[in-house]
Specification:
Layout: E1 12-18, E2 21-29, E3 33-36, H1 45-56, E4 60-64, H2 76-86, H3 102-118, E5 123-128, H4 134-138, E6 144-150, H5 160-164, H6 170-183, E7 187-192, H7 200-210, E8 214-219, H8 248-264
Parallel strand pairs: 3-4, 3-5, 5-6, 6-7, 7-8
Antiparallel strand pairs: 1-2, 2-4
């Protein structure tokens, strides 16, 4: 049986250019703006589900199509195909440490545009997996008031240095830390405890720099955990969510909505 594709009805798509790059952006909703950066392999049904959930909770959502085929199902084949392309793309610099990634310039421009078009005081940015750290890099721009890093996996954690690398350059992190100290900027990070792609050292490094301004949600995925998460559990806000009160990923998604509401309204 073929995996279901995403229903893109109701989403308005248009190209957007920023930082020297052009990508299609899917928009929907009314209210404060949230840039939702898709995880690999792209705007798959789980990403659209999260986007629609945010729209239902009163946000205008903009999803940039940075890779993959919008609407295509999340399958092993589609994941492998997209990873092979994104890993070598200069826009993402998947293995570099202490790196300002070119995609961050595009995302900051998109955040500014979304703030202006929604007349918001600022916008949220959610990054997931491959794009998780991009959300914090976007917060160098003062249009971003609520960055959310869901299982940030770049740079890929090969070696000690990459495991603790925060996914943005030191100069970018310094700006974010200053904003946290002087402007009250807050960020949120989410991960599963045993996720090898998102090492604990990365969150520890961010916590050390940002202190209480970095809210961490870590879901137990150790052997025998109460909710039966596999050791390989990874996608906190999409594939691991079960809409049952008390389910940790469901509660995490609720908290993300609360965080965005607190910071943007």
């Amino acid at each position: 049986m073929n995996a279901p594709e995403a229903d893109l009805s109701g989403w308005v798509v248009a190209p957007f250019t920023g930082g020297g790059y052009t990508h299609d952006v899917y928009r929907k909703g009314a209210g404060p703006g949230v840039v939702l950066i898709p995880e690999i392999p792209g705007i798959h049904p789980g990403v659209l589900g999260l986007g629609n959930h945010l729209v239902d909770n009163g946000f205008t959502v903009a999803i940039p199509s940075l890779f993959g085929v919008p609407g295509r199902a999340k399958t092993t084949g589609s994941i492998v195909e997209v990873i092979a392309r994104t890993c070598v793309a200069k826009e993402f610099a998947a293995f570099a440490t202490n790196k300002e990634r070119p995609v961050s310039q595009f995302l900051r421009a998109l955040a500014r545009d979304l703030k202006a078009s929604t007349a918001s005081k600022g916008v949220g940015v959610i990054g997931e997996c491959f794009t998780g750290g991009f959300a914090l890099a976007a917060a160098v721009d003062d249009s971003v008031l609520a960055p959310v890093l869901s299982q940030p996996s770049v740079p890929f954690p090969l070696g000690r240095t990459r495991r603790s690398d925060p996914g943005l350059s030191e100069s970018e992190l310094a700006v974010v830390a200053r904003r946290a100290a002087d402007e009250g900027l807050c960020a949120m990070g989410l991960r599963f405890s045993e996720d090898p792609v998102v090492p604990a050292e990365r969150f520890a490094a961010l916590k050390q720099r940002l202190g209480d301004a970095f809210e961490v949600i870590e879901i137990d995925s150790s052997p025998g955990n109460a909710h039966g998460f596999a050791k390989s559990a990874h996608s906190v806000l999409t594939s691991e969510v079960r809409e049952v009160d008390g389910h940790p990923a469901y509660e995490a998604r609720k908290r993300v909505v609360e965080f965005l509401t607190e910071r943007l309204t």
